[in-house]
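To the wet lab folks,

You asked to see what we're planning to order before we commit. Fair enough. Below is the target structure as tokens, and below that is the sequence we designed to fit it. If anything looks off to you, flag it before the synthesis order goes out.
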């Protein structure tokens, strides 16, 4: 499941970069970039970086079973749903889809609350064991 989070993160970053390049083309032509395009671009970038981080945080905190599946599915749905609904709703005039933005936002919130729950109820030293642990720096 963490492979899905990481892959979704990298695909999201590639998509965000392609949209950024498209924005550059629009600007190069002397036209302003539509605000809805900028908003979706920014949200996809940040949420994609966090998807990659989540891909490492889930196993580091020992999230397993149904909670692991829920975190993964909810996060990926929100990662793509938030910018997607901005692009579809505002950019393509499908404004009737805009209220679904609440669902995508709630999916992200739910995934973070699951991670919060696992963090406060799990083994506090789970991230300090194994090959992913690093020694503190003295610099």
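Sequence we intend to order:
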């Amino acid at each position: 499941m963490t492979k899905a989070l990481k892959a979704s993160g990298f695909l999201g970053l590639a998509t965000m970069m392609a949209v950024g390049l498209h924005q550059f083309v629009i600007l190069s032509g002397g036209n302003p970039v539509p605000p809805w395009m900028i908003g979706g671009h920014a949200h996809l970038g940040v949420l994609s970086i966090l998807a990659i981080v989540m891909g490492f945080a889930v196993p580091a905190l020992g999230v397993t079973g149904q909670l692991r599946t829920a975190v993964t599915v909810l996060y990926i749905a929100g990662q793509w749903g938030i910018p997607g609904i901005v692009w579809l709703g505002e950019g393509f005039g499908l404004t009737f889809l805009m209220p679904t933005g609440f669902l995508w936002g709630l999916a992200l919130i739910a995934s973070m609350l699951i991670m919060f729950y696992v963090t406060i109820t799990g083994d506090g030293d789970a991230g300090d064991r194994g090959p992913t642990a690093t020694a503190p720096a003295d610099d």
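Structural context that might help your review: The helical segments are 2-28, 35-60, 65-91, 101-121. The domain at 2-125 is CATH 1.20.120 (Four Helix Bundle (Hemerythrin (Met), subunit A)).

Thanks,
Computational group
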